[in-house]
Amino acid sequence: MTPIDDDAPPLDPAESLALIERERAKLGRDLAPDPRVMFWPWGIAWLVGFTFLFLRFGPDGRVYVDMPAWLPLAVLPLLMIAAGILTGIAGGRAGSRISGPSTRQGVMYGVSWSVAFTGFSILFAQFSDILSEDRAGLLWAGGMVALTGVLHMAGGAVWNDRDLFVLGAWTSLINIVGILIGPGWHSLIVAVAGGGGMIAAGLIGWLKLR
Amino acid sequence: MSESDPLVTELDPVIHAQARLRVVSALSVLRDDDRLAFPQLQQSLNMTAGNLSVHLRKLEDAKYVEVTKTHHGRTPTTLVRLTRRGRLAFDDYTAALRALLKPQEGQ
Fold first, then answer.
1. What is the tens place of the pLDDT at every residue in A69-120?
2. Which chain B residue has its CA at the smallest distance from A103's CA?
3. In 3D, which of A203, A94, A194 has the Cα closest to residue A146?
């Protein structure tokens, strides 16, 4: 701990520059929300939730695990709500340390997610009755994953974060592949490649911050 | 260069004190107009609240930082921001440090 009034200049220029960089890096790290907390809940939710979906609603109507139909349909949204709450708290806590343009930016980005998901949910609900069960499932899952991918890409643009942009592009790509291959396979691809991608993003972000 | 210490004669005395240099360095990470909560700054710098307050007051006197007290709901919050002048002083200071380093490297 430094004394109250240390007007003594103890450092040479090189040490001073090192000190400056240390303090800048330290506060930068302290202010960034932990990437593990921001990505892993979503990665796990997708990995587990879409695996449940795949096992019950497999390709061509196959049932790999004979569980009640409501179970995967409940597990996925519940896990996603839990992930949303966890990351919302973590993001909000990180945002509360700062007040100003950055906070507004974060709030606007968060609101965009809510608005996008609400809008798509209301739209998709209009088609649930008309479509077959597996087509309706593909519409919901494919639409939500597409939204997630695009919003991550937009986040990358907002914060000039290349990793976030790459995650979004990857999610969008595997989503399109899954949609084209068809219901069932889409769930498996999103579980493994989508959920896995988010877990990898959390790990890479964390390793970079350490 | 050895007669009088160039560090003392050429560098901004307000942020030449190590503690204040640390404060200004940390605050320089923030974007313009972003304000940082006092406890976060204190924790990141690992200073006591009293110690940090003393240095902030000196920086405030030099108009390098702006300290605002506000309310977050019902809890009072103190927010700290680097002023334009403070950022300029910090940039000049780091530029001066680099300039001091260069001739030494050439020796």
1. 999 999 999 999 999 899 888 888 887 889 999 888 888 998 999 899 999 9
2. B34
3. A194
Which residue, chain included where needed, has tokens 């710098």?
B45
The Cα A93–Cα A56 span in angstroms is 38
DSSP state of B62: T
Q: Residue A27: which of B26, B31, B50 has the nearest Cβ?
A: B26
Q: Within an 8 Å CB–CB cutoff, is residue B37 touching chain A?
A: yes
Query: What is d(CA B75, CA B77) in angstroms, rounded to the nearest whole number?
Result: 6
Q: What is the ipTM of this complex?
A: 0.85
Total number of domains constituting chain A? 1
Fold for B6-98, please state it.
Arc Repressor Mutant, subunit A (1.10.10)
Domain ranges of chain B: 6-98
Range of the domain at A184: 35-209
Q: How far apart are CA B88 and CA A46, in angstroms?
A: 47
Of B98, B90, B96, give the one whose Cα is nearest residue B22. Answer: B90
